[in-house]
């Protein structure tokens, strides 16, 4: 009958008069005693730090600090690792596809997703487990046209790109990470930061920082049409790509490395590619007998 | 993208963990009485939150965590027998510290612990969230996804049943 007052008491909203009223009843006196005693009960100690460490190790793939007691287990782990890697060596299902310098390669994954590798790039994935786990490793640059289905993951040393089914391009070289979305939605993860890209957007991450998010006006990356395109990229990056596409050596002399280039060069004509790069930046170049290039800065 | 409250940010995620995980742990413990399970479920819930961090807005993180725990509980643990081991820590009033009083208090605490074990999971969870956690009925209602009236009912029933048990022994 007085439960309303009881609930007020339990919510700390009761007035002294109401409390007195409650105490007049024997039943409610018992309730108050029980309620007060229950406040003194405790749950077992909760180990905040321990749980956090477990969560962190599950969410981070980075190497962890190994505490002393684990060290004795390491030798067993090493033996197990050797056995496992021996087994994997003979029975892996790991496929590797590589495009050499001045080469491009296109191939199809087991689920009919299409991949085009740009020059000097490599992809590896587990063919046997592909249908369970659509995940591959990329070094370099590649364009993907992903068949609809389960999550599709591209892992690189600079971050991870996750999609369901879509077309996108991933470039991961040295500390330069550039992801472009041509259709659908892709999620880019690096340093625990997630960025979602929708159709026509791209993100450039240099040395772990987002430096630009240019829009894309074309429907496929330029390099697939024998052109390399750049958006405010460092001269070093541009010339590295030139080396990859033409299989040449490039030497810099007095070139200011902070120069940045926006534009595209062709893969079919070295002379004209060099002009496209050097003219707007007021650089000069020469090509020797072996076809190797020297780029000169202004004195 | 650079939302300061983005759950995907390590610092935001960590502060959510510090703020919410002790209560979440208690919540599961009230349900199952198993420390190990409570710890595991807290861990799993936060790992799930991390994986879905891009999709869960900051304001929804709490209800996400409780929902994940509740679901995991329904899936895996609902039918286990609940045995609670509470550490009673009855604080005595100085002027009442006679040996008789202490005996009585200790005994009362023990009887209460036994009685709490006998409650239904729903009654126990609501009652202890209010008593041990100090949560208001409105917050309990939100977490359990029931009405405030339903919380009142569960707690009334809990107290009636506890009184009966404590007197019986």
Describe the 3D structure.
The complex is a heterodimer of chains A (299) and B (169). Chain A is of the alpha+beta class and 299 residues long. Chain A folds into three domains: 1-62, no CATH class; 95-225, Jelly Rolls (Sandwich); 226-299, Phage tail protein beta-alpha-beta fold, CATH 3.55.50. Helix content of chain A is 29%, strand content 36%. The longest helix of chain A is centred in the first third of the chain and has 23 residues, at 68-90. Chain A is elongated, with a radius of gyration of 31 Å. The model of chain B has no long low-confidence stretch (mean pLDDT 83). Chain B contains seven helices and one strand, in the order αααβαααα. Chain B has helices at residues 10-32, 35-51, 61-77, 99-118, 121-131, 137-144, 148-168, and one strand at 87-88. Chain B starts with 9 loop residues before the first helix and ends with a helix. With 169 residues, chain B is mostly helical. At the A-B interface, helix 1, helix 3, strand 1, helix 4 and strand 12 of A face helix 1, helix 2, strand 1, helix 4 and helix 5 of B.
Briefly note the structural class of the backbone of chain B: mainly alpha
Helix/strand order of chain B, N-terminal first: HHHEHHHH
If you compute it from the alpha carbons, what radius of gyration of chain A comes out, rounded to the nearest whole angstrom? 31 Å
Q: Tell me about the biggest sheet of chain B? A: none
Mean pLDDT of chain B: 83
Task: Supply the CATH class of the largest domain in chain A.
Answer: Mainly Beta
Provide mean pLDDT of chain A, rounded. 85
Task: Provide a quick synopsis of the model.
The complex is a heterodimer of chains A (299) and B (169). Chain A is of the alpha+beta class and 299 residues long.
Layout: helices, strands, pairs:
The complex is a heterodimer of chains A (299) and B (169).
Chain A: H1 3-10, H2 16-23, H3 26-39, E1 41-42, H4 48-59, H5 68-90, E2 94-99, E3 105-108, E4 114-117, E5 121-126, E6 134-145, E7 152-156, E8 159-163, E9 167-173, E10 176-183, E11 185-190, E12 193-198, E13 201-206, E14 209-212, E15 227-234, H6 235-246, E16 250-253, E17 260-266, H7 270-278, E18 284-287, E19 293-296
Parallel strand pairs in A: 6-7, 16-19
Antiparallel strand pairs in A: 2-5, 3-4, 4-6, 5-6, 6-9, 7-8, 8-11, 9-10, 10-13, 11-12, 13-14, 15-17, 18-19
Chain B: H1 10-32, H2 35-51, H3 61-77, E1 87-88, H4 99-118, H5 121-131, H6 137-144, H7 148-168
Helix pairs in contact in B: 1-2, 1-3, 1-5, 2-3, 4-7, 5-7, 6-7
């Amino acid at each position: 009958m007085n439960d309303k007052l009881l609930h007020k008491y339990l919510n700390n909203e009761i007035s002294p008069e109401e409390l007195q009223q409650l105490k007049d009843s024997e039943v409610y006196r018992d309730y108050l005693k029980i309620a007060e005693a229950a406040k003194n009960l405790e749950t077992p100690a909760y180990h905040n730090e321990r749980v956090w460490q477990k969560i962190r190790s599950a969410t981070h793939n980075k190497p962890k600090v190994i505490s002393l007691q684990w060290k004795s287990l390491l030798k067993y782990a090493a033996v197990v690792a050797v056995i496992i890697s021996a087994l994997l060596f003979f029975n892996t299902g790991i496929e590797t596809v590589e495009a050499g310098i001045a080469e491009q390669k296109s191939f199809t994954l087991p689920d009919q997703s299409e991949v085009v590798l740009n020059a000097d790039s490599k992809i590896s994935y587990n063919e046997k487990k592909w249908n369970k786990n659509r995940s591959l490793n990329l070094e370099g640059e590649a364009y993907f046209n992903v068949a609809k289905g389960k999550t599709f993951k591209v892992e690189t040393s600079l971050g991870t790109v996750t999609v369901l089914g879509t077309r996108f391009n991933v470039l991961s070289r040295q500390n330069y990470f550039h992801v472009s979305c041509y259709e659908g939605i892709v999620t880019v993860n690096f340093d625990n930061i997630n960025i979602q890209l929708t159709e026509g957007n791209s993100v450039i991450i240099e040395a772990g920082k987002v430096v630009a998010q240019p829009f894309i006006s074309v429907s496929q990356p330029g390099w697939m049409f024998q052109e390399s395109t750049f958006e405010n990229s460092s001269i070093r990056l541009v010339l590295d790509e030139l080396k990859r596409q033409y299989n040449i050596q490039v030497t810099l002399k007095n070139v200011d490395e902070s120069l940045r280039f926006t534009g595209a060069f062709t893969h079919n004509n070295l002379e004209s590619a060099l002009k496209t790069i050097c003219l707007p930046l007021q650089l000069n170049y020469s090509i020797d007998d072996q076809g190797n290039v020297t780029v000169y800065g202004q004195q | 993208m650079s939302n300061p409250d983005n759950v995907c940010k390590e610092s935001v995620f960590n502060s959510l963990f510090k703020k919410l995980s002790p209560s979440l742990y208690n919540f599961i413990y009230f349900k199952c009485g198993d420390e190990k399970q409570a710890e595991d479920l807290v861990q799993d819930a936060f790992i799930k939150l991390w994986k879905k961090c891009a999709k869960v807005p900051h304001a929804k993180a709490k209800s996400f965590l409780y929902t994940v725990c509740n679901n995991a509980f329904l899936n895996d643990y609902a039918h286990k027998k609940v045995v609670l081991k509470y550490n009673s820590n009855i604080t005595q009033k100085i002027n009442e510290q006679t040996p008789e009083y202490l005996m009585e208090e200790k005994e009362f605490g023990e009887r209460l612990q036994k009685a709490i074990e006998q409650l239904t999971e729903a009654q126990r969870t609501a009652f202890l969230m209010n008593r041990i956690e100090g949560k208001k009925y409105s917050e309990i209602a939100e977490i359990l996804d029931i009405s405030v009236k339903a919380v009142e009912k569960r707690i009334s029933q809990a107290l009636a049943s506890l009184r009966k048990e404590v007197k019986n022994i």
